[in-house]
Amino acid sequence: MSDLTPIAQLGEFGLIGRLQQHIALTQPSTRLGIGDDAAIIAPLPDHDLVISTDMLVEGVHFDLSFSPLRHLGYKAVAVNVSDIAAMLALPTQLVVALSLPARFTVEAVEELYAGMRLACEAYGVDLVGGDTTASRGGLVISLTVLGQVPTGQAVRRGGGRPTDILCVSGDLGAAYLGLQVLEREKQAFLADPDTQPELDNYDYVVRRQLRPEARLDLVHELRELGARPTSMIDISDGLASEVLHLCAASGTGARVFSEFLPLANPTLEAAAEFSLDPVMCALNGGEDYELLFTLPVADHAKIKNHPDITVIGHLTDAADSVNLILKSGQAVPLRAQGWGHF
Ligand code: ADP
Ligand code: MG
């Protein structure tokens, strides 16, 4: 492995210089990127700034034995951008703080950045700065994304009203099943390093776990359709947990119909193989990074033919009563299991 460069050989400044080489700035609001003591942003006139931070810790949020660094870089940006999208805002700038274990090489960090750059291009975000330190433990990636939204137009969690319809984008539960597949292959590999990973039939669910997308496309489409969500949240911890957050903030109850939950065929197949209930995967799996939002009933016509938006239920005035309605008609209280990293 003599073609790999220890970070110590370049030093912190050498490394930053290397990473900086490929970074392009495209946002009109970016006045100054990497290289000074701070970046300079000139917010668009008549816009609010939105800002969000996410930290990813090795061993807690990701496992480098099955997360390729390029995907990890992409995912780190996507999950941050997802939070900005969930405000109905558009992301503009990003800063990245890295804590790097000594075993990391310059080439490894470049892989991570290649993934982050791809995501920055996909979402139109400028990487304008960061910080780099050594880590005595695992890899830590902390990202802060800035976004902008026309003044007063950001969509919060608390604006939902009784009778509003509850909508989700895309499909749910796949990322959790992707994680089950990857964990299984890891165990098989640890037991017998000669086994070949069997991932071929699990393309979709594995991709949803390793390389999720932020639904920025929906932000544009909802604006174009003139459908203005009354409340919105991104689905990072599982649908159940997010519905509860949204209802708590809005002071409403909700009815979610289990038979309406969008489940992709590969999700149903993987769930069957793992003897898991796909509805439970959708409710509690997490990491789907789809959007959950409410619309006034009057806006239903605007979204009802959208191929990637599903109405899964509605809000009610019975605060504290957030129920899953089973196919039988029976109502069971929704509970959040979330991720439980602690
Ligand atoms: P300071 O000592 O003022 O904090 P640094 O040496 O940490 O400066 O950073 C120098 C420049 O490089 C700054 O513009 C900073 O934003 C940028 N930078 C540092 N680390 C990273 C990183 N991991 N990714 C992107 N930019 C970085
Ligand atoms: Mg610094």
Describe, in plain words, how this protein is organized in 3D:
- This protein has helices at residues 7-20, 69-85, 106-123, 174-191, 203-210, 216-225, 239-250, 265-273, 278-284, 300-303; strands at residues 30-32, 40-41, 47-57, 90-101, 126-135, 140-150, 165-169, 231-234, 253-257, 291-295, 309-316, 322-325, 331-333.
- It is globular.
- It has 342 residues and is of the alpha+beta class.
- The protein has ten helices and 13 strands.
- The strands form three sheets. A seven-stranded mixed sheet has the order 8-10-7-11-9-12-13, sandwiched between helices. It has a four-stranded mixed sheet with strand order 3-6-4-5, covered by helices on one side.
- Adenosine-5'-diphosphate binds at residues 16, 19, 34-37, 96, 98, 129-132.
Fold blueprint:
Layout: H1 7-20, E1 30-32, E2 40-41, E3 47-57, H2 69-85, E4 90-101, H3 106-123, E5 126-135, E6 140-150, E7 165-169, H4 174-191, H5 203-210, H6 216-225, E8 231-234, H7 239-250, E9 253-257, H8 265-273, H9 278-284, E10 291-295, H10 300-303, E11 309-316, E12 322-325, E13 331-333
Parallel strand pairs: 4-5, 9-12
Antiparallel strand pairs: 1-2, 3-6, 4-6, 7-10, 7-11, 8-10, 9-11, 12-13
Helix pairs in contact: 1-3, 2-3, 4-5, 4-8
The structure holds adenosine-5'-diphosphate and magnesium ion.
